[in-house]
Design a protein that fits this description.
64% of the residues lie in helices and 2% in strands. It has 257 residues and is mostly helical. The protein has one domain. It is globular and about 65 Å long. This is CPBP family intramembrane metalloprotease. Keywords: Hydrolase, Membrane, Metalloprotease, Protease, Transmembrane, Transmembrane helix. Pfam families: Rce1-like.
Length: 257
């Protein structure tokens, strides 16, 4: 007869384990939860050689991205719409190609577990408020330091559907492909070779660098840190994509209005 203090331990199901994040039962050999997408093991599975190989792959992605961004920003011959389309297409195709190299793991980031319209609305509201503050602070700094005011729309003036082009190339494509590349492919690699906090900080710093604007580092790094932690917490890229889109779209609306 069992006493009141006796505790009966549950018998684990053969070949199953509980997810470390959502506690759903999954196969014991799964590295990622089929329900929430959370990674089940820490980085200890990767040895030094594997980590170095992963860092090289991430370095190639970042190096190619940085070179293309430098060409787009500093080569006068590329300051036109045709070049912009070619450059954006090259970056998009390259990002998808790198992301696809780890498709078995990375595809889970395209799932949207526990979708919440309230949470999405909150994130989008934060993005729009942040864009408002950044717009006025950057405008003030540009006028104060450089005695000039920059505008995204200038590069599209004279082309048909200039407003549509502005929103597409400033809000839509960066939100999708920068998140796919930096919070998807690159952060996923860094999580395998460093702890979570280090991975988020490194990916945020690298993301800020490719924008090639020293003046904008004061907001680019916090922006990337917020989305990085969002991606780790939510186990999906979609909240970050919508956050990024709303932030850039708000910046576009300042230009148009």
């Amino acid at each position: 007869m069992l006493s009141e203090e006796t505790v009966i331990e549950p018998v684990p199901l053969l070949g199953k384990k509980a997810c470390i994040s959502c506690t759903v039962l999954i196969d014991s050999d799964c590295k990622f939860c089929n329900s929430c997408g959370a990674r089940q093991t820490q980085v200890q599975g990767a040895n030094t050689a594997e980590k170095w190989q992963l860092l090289q792959q991430g370095g190639v992605f970042f190096g190619l991205t940085l070179i293309v961004c430098c060409l787009a920003k500093f080569v006068d011959a590329l300051q036109n719409l045709t070049s912009l389309i070619i450059i954006d297409a090259f970056l998009a195709i390259g990002t998808v190609a790198f992301f696809a190299t780890g498709w078995q793991e990375n595809k889970r980031l395209l799932h949207w577990p526990n979708f919440s319209i309230q949470k999405l609305s909150l994130y989008c509201g934060i993005a729009m408020a942040g864009a408002f503050l950044v717009h006025y602070s950057v405008t003030w700094l540009n006028i104060t330091i450089f005695s000039k005011e920059e505008s995204y729309i200038w590069g599209f003036i004279g082309y048909p559907y200039a407003k549509v082009l502005l929103i597409f190339f400033t809000a839509v494509t960066p939100a999708i492909f920068e998140e796919l590349g930096f919070r998807g492919y690159l952060l996923q690699i860094l999580l395998k070779v460093a702890d979570e906090q280090q991975a988020v900080y490194i990916s945020a710093f690298l993301f800020a660098i490719i924008h090639l604007s020293f003046l904008s580092l004061f907001w680019l790094i916090p922006f990337a840190l917020f989305i990085g932690y969002m991606r780790v917490k939510e186990h999906t890229l979609w909240y970050g994509i919508f956050f990024h889109f709303c932030f850039n779209l708000t910046a576009c609306l300042f230009e148009l209005l």
